[in-house]
Structures are given as C-alpha cells and as structure tokens.
Amino acid sequence: MFNGSRKYSPLPSSPSSSRASSSSSSSSSSSSSSLPATPRRSPRALPRHSSLLSQYSSLLESYTEGEIRQLISALVERYSQAMNSGGHELPLFPRAGSRRKRARARHKPCALKELEVSVSELGLGYESDETVLFRYCSGTCEAAVRSYDLSLKSMRSRRKIKKEKVRARPCCRPLAYDDDVSFLDAYNRYYTVNELSAKECGCV
C-alpha cells in the first residue's frame, strides 16, 4: 500500500516469546471474538480467625499440664451439675439476657398466685398429710406509689420520723380472703382454718 523507502525490521525476540506469539495467533484465529481470560482471584484469607487460633494456642501453651487438667475437670464437673439440675448447659459467663429477665421478674405487678401444699407445710402447727390449695399475693407495687408514700420516704430520709415503724411504699397484700379450709390431722381430729388463702390481691 505504501511506496516509501523506509523498511521495518521485526524486533528481536526469544524462542519462548515466538512460541507464545505463534500460540496466541493460532488461538486468536480460532476464537477472534472471545474476550481475554481474566485471572481468578484466590480466596481471601481469614486473619482474624487465624489470629484467634494463634492466641488460643499460645494461651494453652502457657499453662502447665496440671493447670490444664484442673481446667478440664472443672468444666466436666460444671457440665455434670448442669445435666443433673435439668439438662441445660450452664453458661460459662452470665448473659445480659438473664439479667434482663431477672429485672422483669422483680417488677411484675401484684397478682394472685396459687400453690398446692400439705397442711403440715403451712406452718400453723397441724400435722396432716392432706393437701390444700394455698393462694397468695406476689408482685411489686411501683405503679401504685402515691404522694403519701413519697412524702413519707422523704420524712424518713430527713430523720423526721425515727422510732416509728412505717412503710414508705405500698405492699402487695390480700384485699379479701377465700373460704375457710377444713381438714383432718394425723390423729383424726377435725380442724377449720379461716383467712388462710387470698381471694383478691392489691397494693395497700
């Protein structure tokens, strides 16, 4: 196409480059429209996990054989105690959720609950194997605090009220009692106890 007098000489190349050029030319002729292959990215390493493993391994290496045996025996004993107490594994460290549950349990409102017990367990001096349904009041009365309770608490803190036994907050107590309870004791003697179980609870 050009009639100029300048001549172009090919660049010197090594045998390997010539082989590579010949192979590339053959591959380009076979698939001229295909895109060049991109190198695959190697999977990322996990330095955090490896560092943790190295830390734990170095930590275990710092223990003596006797200390490791004591640690394993303590863990086995803790696990066996958990299995004997109900089949649930005890956590090595207390969880924040358990603390929140205990806080919610302490702030449950005043309510009526019941429990089936024997007459002897009532603590009234009767010996009997008969069982009764004992209803009782349980819960807190934070929502029932009145101005009287706040003022009384302030008077106590200022030592205006010293000797008297007063309660500066409402208490969950029975407002009404259930029917009388009758039973036979261990000597076949008949007894009736009144105002034993709560019927209605409230903050007083």
From TrEMBL:
The UniProt keywords, alphabetically, are: Disulfide bond, Growth factor, Secreted, Signal
SMART domains in the record: TGFB
Q: Which GO terms describe its cellular component?
A: extracellular region
Keyword flag Protease: no
Q: Name one Pfam family in it.
A: TGF_beta
What is its subcellular localisation?
A: Secreted
Q: Where is the composition biased (Low complexity)?
A: 9-40
Report the sequence similarity comment from the record. Answer: Belongs to the TGF-beta family. GDNF subfamily.
Assembly and binders: Homodimer; disulfide-linked. Interacts with GFRA2 coreceptor and RET: forms a 2:2:2 ternary complex composed of NRTN ligand, GFRA2 and RET receptor. Also forms a 4:4:4 tetrameric complex composed of 4 copies of NRTN ligand, GFRA2 and RET receptor, which prevents endocytosis of RET.
Q: What is this protein called?
A: Neurturin
Organism listed in the record: Zapornia atra (Henderson crake)
